[in-house]
Design a protein that fits this description.
The protein has five helices and five strands, in the order E-H-E-H-E-H-E-H-E-H. The protein has 125 residues and is an alpha/beta fold. The chain is globular and about 30 Å long. Helix 1 links the parallel strand 1 and strand 2. The protein has a single domain, classed as Rossmann fold, CATH 3.40.50. Helix 2 packs parallel to helix 3. The protein starts with a strand and ends in a 6-residue tail after the last helix. A five-stranded parallel β-sheet has the order 2-1-3-4-5, with helices on both faces.
Amino acid sequence: MFKAAVVDPDPGSLQATAGLLANNGHIASVACFSGYDGFMSELRKGGVHIAFIRVGVPGLPGLSVARETLAVSPATMVVFMSDTESYAVTAFEEGASGYLLLPAEQKDFDGVVENIRKRGNRKFV
């Protein structure tokens, strides 16, 4: 079971994402963060297995957050979320474990989580 975190400055998107993740049988808990500081504090405690990070929106330096996530916790898997495909290549260049084009549906989140679970190469699986 994974502990997930969602980082998204948009309250509606944040809650929608959390709801979809809560419906996934491999997600034990979902922590929501509208900004960088709270998320990084939780990450440093070791409580995040998968981080779903919104990129390409005002108010959140998503690419920087993703880079810092992997620097602080290399075992944490990062999934980029955006309403445009323009960050997809960058996401994988940065070592992302997945990319979700928003708005995403339950099957999209389930597919990303299943791909991460199947890899089985991280200590949290």
